[in-house]
Structures
1.
Amino acid sequence: QKEVEQDPGPLSVPEGAIVSLNCTYSNSAFQYFMWYRQYSRKGPELLMYTYSSGNKEDGRFTAQVDKSSKYISLFIRDSQPSDSATYLCAFNTGGFKTIFGAGTRLFVKA
Amino acid sequence: ETGVTQTPRHLVMGMTNKKSLKCEQHLGHNAMYWYKQSAKKPLELMFVYSLEERVENNSVPSRFSPECPNSSHLFLHLHTLQPEDSALYLCASSPSDSGGSTDTQYFGPGTRLTVL
């Protein structure tokens, strides 16, 4: 079983739609849950960070963690063409090692 | 220059060539990282340096050789690579000298490497 599973997409939605991106993981030691956004020809940038189960909201973005199901989600409300990018889930147990998902490619059509 | 810069942005090399990738961070961070990003695969951590000492080495083949001469610069020396080494090589830096969940990594734009 892979440590992290993430659907690569691509996911194509119309402008204004609500987007749901998801990852599952198998390592119970993961305590810190992150979402990175990577635009074409750029490096990833940290978008959201959460610790433990629950929700965290930042503008149009909501990160959700369900540790009992080993499942994390990122919701994007009122999606914009500028949200078109690859979204990577990431997990850390402390220390320097961060485990990344393969990324979901998102296209938001105007 | 701001943030994390990487040169060259694109590199094509033969299997017998020797080349180097360069990373520079202008953020005053203590840790620097090399990652490999292949199509439809997760980022693979290759090496981590903290305060110029290597702290992570994830079973990377010896044809990849990192060098960290100071806390602002990181190199990846390449020799006798294979076609399957073609990928995007990303450099990152983070503030902490001990890592951790809240130690945000800042990535450079990457070097797109093609091995013929």
2.
Amino acid sequence: GENVEQHPSTLSVQEGDSAVIKCTYSDSASNYFPWYKQELGKRPQLIIDIRSNVGEKKDQRIAVTLNKTAKHFSLHITETQPEDSAVYFCAASWNEKLTFGTGTRLTIIP
Amino acid sequence: GAGVSQSPSNKVTEKGKDVELRCDPISGHTALYWYRQSLGQGLEFLIYFQGNSAPDKSGLPSDRFSAERTGGSVSTLTIQRTQQEDSAVYLCASSLEGGNTGELFFGEGSRLTVL
């Protein structure tokens, strides 16, 4: 089955700076890579996703890059704001199942 | 309803008792997932339904765990003879088609505490 590793587990950045979270996956058949954000006490929600036929995708301050050869993908958040503080989960889809990474707790320092 | 609904939101039980957790997916969503989230941990896959069938049960931790889905809608996750290590938040999610095609919509979760 799929194995997804996520780093770092915690990340603190100054407000206005950029944050980068990295994930690797094991199964080359995976073809869908979403990112979910979970605010404290709330449910995870999709913030951006990328499919295997695309190398990069942007949505305002958020971007995701995918390197299929190396089997890794990253989330980039620019101009961070206090509301970006949350736990972020990457995931990879294999055989209809979405396998999640262990999460990154992002803290934005005012 | 507009979103995924789970009940109970909180459940405290004694070790050895059975518990049932219910999930009401978004109407029309054919795919339904159960995940477990322990304190400060990631999302551990338990089971996936497409319609009423479960193509992937690989994540169920032991034979004390079972799940069913009826009418392509409501799903129940049953934990028999609960143990303290079963304490976690159990999250249900539904998707219009499946995990490799689109967004998963999560419920608020059922927090299980086994004393």
3.
Amino acid sequence: AQSVTQLDSQVPVFEEAPVELRCNYSSSVSVYLFWYVQYPNQGLQLLLKYLSGSTLVKGINGFEAEFNKSQTSFHLRKPSVHISDTAEYFCAVSPMYSGGGADGLTFGKGTHLIIQP
Amino acid sequence: NAGVTQTPKFQVLKTGQSMTLQCAQDMNHEYMSWYRQDPGMGLRLIHYSVGAGITDQGEVPNGYNVSRSTTEDFPLRLLSAAPSQTSVYFCASSEGTIANTGELFFGEGSRLTVL
């Protein structure tokens, strides 16, 4: 079984400052890694994903994440945040052996990013 | 392109009542799933389907039923509502496995309150 730990439930950041949202996972097998974003009163949408290849992954809205296999981490970063980035961010993993079916997807509990003007 | 459509958006039930949350997608996706979202708990998988006529249980299936008679529709039935089922419910779909597409498409959610 897999587990995902998002180390911060809430991260306040001033506008135009950099931000890092931390995600660690536990798995005995290789995994696919994802970050989803949920804006207020909306469903989740994919921000970025790591399936294979380069460990630095770029996503939408200027976000990027780096897969670190030795530290089992997949931290999300943005160099300069905007008010519009206020949202809930979810890290998720899926084991490769499952073929990547939705039943294998495990979500973290989420990090609420609060942008202060 | 409507994507994933959930109805109703809000619902209040009394304990013991039954109801169906509707989910429809117009992307011809094979995979569909239902999640519930509770504060501090993230998203938990209730049921999922890999195609018409095929359903399976997720992490928290008790108290819920599903069926998949068509590719487009995946309704979630609450048999006898309990206060513990107060939550926000999300339907999601994907074209194939996460490995192939890397993406779930979510509806906007259905907020259910059980009194």
